[in-house]
Each structure stands twice: as C-alpha cells, then as structure tokens.
Amino acid sequence: MSTENTVADRLLNDARKKTAKNESPMLGKIALIIGIIGLVVSPVSILGWIVGASAVVTGAIAVKRPAAAKFAKIAIALGVAAILVGVFFYTLNIAVR
To answer: Which of 11, 40, 44, 63 has the most CB atoms within 10 Å of its CB?
Structure first.
C-alpha cells in the first residue's frame, strides 16, 4: 500500500491555489489599468462612461481581496473621475451646439 493520501494532497493543493488567488494583487492592477484608460478616454463622453463604469465594477470586485484592495480603491476613484469628466464633456458638447 502507498503511504501517500491522494485525496488529502488534492485538497491541500486546491486550498493552496485558492489562497494564492486571494493573495494575488493582479485583479487590482487590472482595475487600476482600466481606470487609467478610462480617465484618458473620458473626453469622449460615451467611452469614458463605459470604461469608467467597468473600472468601478472591477475595482469593487477586487476590493474583496486584501492584496488588491489598495489598487482597487484607486481604480474606483479613477473610474468615478472618468465618469464625471465624461459627463462634463457631454454637457459641454450639448451647450456649445
């Protein structure tokens, strides 16, 4: 008989993968990148709204992970700023016409 317990090893490996996934700041970094892109494209109002909203949603999901919380909070702020700048330029475009 083998001394290895394959079920226990598999459960341990699954737990390690889940812990590594929760400790990874990758989702926060992705949200931060989306927020930066949203702020850059926000003068094009509709695009700024869409990308800003996706930064807010991605950041809200990433806040739940402790390693990504800092990046996620910054991404949420950038997403909100992108939406506000998009609304400003949309209003400015309507006022100029």
So the answer is: 63
31 located within any domain: yes
pTM attached to this predicted model = 0.76
| Sign of the four-CA dihedral 83, 89, 92, 96 | negative
Q: Number of helices and strands (H, E) in the chain? A: 4, 0
How many domains does the chain divide into?
Answer: 1
**pLDDT per position as a tens digit, 28-85:** 999 999 999 999 999 887 888 999 999 999 999 999 888 888 999 999 999 999 999 9
Q: Is 3 within the bounds of a domain?
A: no
| Nearest to 49, CA basis, from 60, 57, 38, 59 | 38
Measuring CA to CA, which residue among 7, 50, 59 is closest to residue 31?
59
Q: Report yes or no on 73 lying in a domain.
A: yes
